[in-house]
Structures are given as structure tokens and as C-alpha cells.
Amino acid sequence: MSTTSLGMPALPPRTAQPTWKQAWDTALYGPDGYLRAHPVTLERDRDELVEFLLPRLRDHASVALLGAAGTLAATLSGLLPDVSLRPDVPTGFTGVVIAVDWLSHVPTHVVQADDDGRPRIVHVDPISGQESLGLLLSDPGVPPTLREWQEQHWPLKADFARAEIGTTREAAWRDVLRCLESGEAIAIENGHLSGGRPEAGSLRAAGDLPTIPDGTRDLWADVALDALVDACGGTPVTGDGPERVEWVAHG
Question: What is d(CA 8, CA 18) in angstroms, rounded to the nearest whole number?
């Protein structure tokens, strides 16, 4: 049995299977991950999205397209020939960042309330998809930020209710904003707000396939938009076009 730095026995895991976050990350971005060989699918009306984006991009020289926004590159290039399009956000970037279904593909920890209503980390078999419950969010060794986020942004109000912890999405979006010297960043995502969280969570696979992290299918989960704004600033917009968070940087 392994020991802690103080020589005390380390808590054994409740299950040998990886956490959902670990399995999800490997399934999409590992050596044989799905997104290594398949682009993110645009699960939106292309014409409507282009119509929404055009007036926001015309006055900028550079645009970074993240996630499914990259599938619009050829169309936008033809309509905006003087705008430079790129697939990344370098440090000191000036322009507009458009992320479409990008944060929804950032793997998160999945938690579920047990039969006593206590949130536990969910583990999953990468081949069968069979799940098991692991450590409590309050257990030693579990980063306290997970419990803090869950209690503040996604309380589990019933036994077996589930949540996707948004800390990894917030860290990813902060990295984007740190690189943006001036301009705008817009994250266009399927999302939800406090009071309207899906009780069973939103993790799912493309094409109504079973939600199994075996590397053969796309997996994503909706974004807690208001929690993202609390962590990173910006404005959540759930009307007048696609659900999104908009952030403006003044250089």
C-alpha cells in the first residue's frame, strides 16, 4: 500500500476504473483519440451562424477560430478576404476569438450524489461504459476546488443527481483571455444557467450513440455559462442568436 508524505497509508481508490475526466480526455485527445482523426462536428445551422458572425468580424484584421468554428474557415475566408484566419490564439493576439462548441469538448470531472445525497466522483470503464462511484468530494486527496465549485454552482438536490464540474473549462477560457491583448472573445456553446441545470447532467455522445469513452465517438457536455462568467468575466447571452459568453479586452 502506498503512503502519504507523512507516512500514513494513502486512501485506496473505491474503483480501479479511471475517472470520467481521465477517460473522456483519453477518448478524445489520447494517441488514438477520436478528435485526433476526426474534426469537431458543427452541430448548428451553418448559415445562421455565419450570418451572426459576419458583422462581428468585418472590422477586424485577425480572427482565431477554435473548435467547430474551424469548419467555417473556408466560408468566412470567401466572404471576408481581407481578414486573416488562424486556428490558435498566440500570446498578445489582437482581434476576435470565436470558439464554437470548444469548451463543451474540454473534459470535466463528473460527479453524482450517492444514495445518501453525498457527491462522489464518477468512474467509468472505457470499453463497456459501466460506471462506478469513487471518492466523496469531501475526501482527502480530492482537490477542494471541485467541491467548492459544485456547492456554489451546481448543487445536487436529489439522490443520484449528476453534475459536470466546470473548473477545467474555466481554466481553458482564462488561458484564451490571457492571450487576448485587445479585441473580443466569444464562446458559442450549448449551455445552462443556475436554476436550469440538467439534473442528470448533459454528457453525451454524437449520433445518439451510447456514452462510452472508447475513442470511437465524439463526447461533449454543455457549459455552465454563468459559472464561466463568474470565473472569467464577460457577459452571458442566451437570446438574440446562439447561446454564448462574450468578453471584450481593451488594449
Answer: 24
Instruction: Kindly report the pTM of this predicted structure.
Output: 0.91
What span, in angstroms and rounded, lies between the C-alpha atoms of 45 and 51? 10
Domain residue limits, the chain: 19-221
- CATH of the domain spanning 19-221: 3.40.50.12710
Say if residue 164's pLDDT is above 90: yes
Give the model confidence (pLDDT) of 101-134 as tens digits: 999 999 999 999 999 999 999 999 999 999 999 9
Angle between helices 225-232 and 144-153 (to 10 degrees): 120
- Alpha-carbon span 188 to 228, nearest angstrom: 12
Nearest partner of 231 among 149, 161, 150, judged by Cα: 149
Is the CB of residue 76 less than 8 Å from the CB of residue 63? yes
CA distance linking residue 107 with residue 135, whole number of Å = 19
Query: What cell was used for 118?
Result: 453525498
